[in-house]
Design goal:
Shape: globular
Strand order of the largest sheet: 3-2-1-4-5-6
Order of helices and strands: EHEEHEHEHE
EC number: 3.5.1.19
Strand content: 15-25%
Keywords: Hydrolase, Metal-binding, Pyridine nucleotide biosynthesis
Distance between the termini: 29 Å
Pfam family, one: Isochorismatase
Number of helices: 4
Helix content: 25-40%
InterPro entries: Isochorismatase-like_dom, Isochorismatase-like_sf, Isochorismatase_Nicotinamidase
Radius of gyration: 15 Å
Structural class: alpha/beta
Enzyme class: hydrolase
Oligomer: single chain
C-alpha cells in the first residue's frame, strides 16, 4: 500500500488564542511534529490542508451559530491563517487551500498550488491509503476522513494527533467516522 499523511488545518486561528481556538490545538501541532520526526520515511507523501478565506459569504457571521456560520477566521493576509509555529512544515510536500469563496471543511475541497484537488493529486502518485491528523476532530478532520472513504482510500485517523471542539460533537464525529469505515487509533485530545 502507498500511504499519504494528511495534516488538517493546524493554523493559528484554530489554536489557543486564535479567533476559533480549540483547546489542545498548540499541543496537537507539537505532537504532529514529533510524530513526523518519529515516522520519517513511513509515508510516501505528507500534505496539509488549510482554511484560506477571502470572501466565504455566509460562512462568516457576526452572530455565528457554530454549525453553519462562524466568526471570521483564517483570512488571506491575516496572521491567523498561518500554520502554528510548532508544526514542522518542512515535511509538507503540498498544501491544499480551501474555502476561498465558500465554506469548506474537507481537505478534499482544497486546491494545490497548481490548482489540482487532493483526490487526483493522490491518485497521480499511486496513493491508496491515507492517515489523517489535525484540527478539529469534529469538523474538518471528520469531513476529510469521510471524503477519503468516499473517494475509495483506506482511511485512518490518529485521534491522539487531533483536537476536538466539544466532547459531544467529537464523540458523534468518532461514531460517524467509524460507521463509515474509518479506522480510529488513539484517543482525542
Amino acid at each position: 500500500m502507498t500511504t499519504a499523511l494528511i495534516v488538517v488545518d493546524v493554523q493559528l486561528d484554530f489554536c489557543e488564542g486564535g479567533s476559533m481556538g480549540v483547546e489542545g490545538g498548540a499541543a496537537t501541532a507539537s505532537a504532529i511534529s514529533a510524530f513526523l520526526g518519529r515516522s520519517a520515511g513511513t509515508y510516501a507523501h505528507v500534505v496539509a490542508s488549510r482554511d484560506y478565506h477571502e470572501d466565504p459569504g455566509d460562512h462568516f457571521s457576526s452572530t455565528p451559530d457554530f454549525v453553519d456560520t462562524w466568526p471570521p477566521h483564517c483570512r488571506l493576509g491575516h496572521p491567523g491563517a498561518a500554520f502554528h509555529p510548532d508544526l514542522d512544515v518542512h515535511r509538507l510536500e503540498e498544501v491544499f487551500s480551501k474555502g476561498r469563496f465558500e465554506a469548506a471543511y474537507s481537505a478534499f475541497e482544497g486546491h494545490a498550488s497548481d490548482g489540482h484537488h487532493l483526490t487526483p493529486w493522490l491518485r497521480d502518485r499511486g496513493v491508496d491509503a491515507v492517515e489523517i491528523v489535525g484540527i478539529a476532530t469534529d469538523h474538518c478532520v471528520r469531513a476529510t476522513a469521510l471524503d477519503a472513504v468516499r473517494a475509495g482510500f483506506t482511511t485512518t485517523v490518529h485521534l491522539d494527533l487531533t483536537a476536538g471542539v466539544l466532547p459531544g460533537t467529537t464523540a458523534r464525529a468518532r461514531a460517524e467516522m467509524a460507521g463509515a469505515g474509518v479506522t480510529l487509533t488513539g484517543t482525542t485530545r
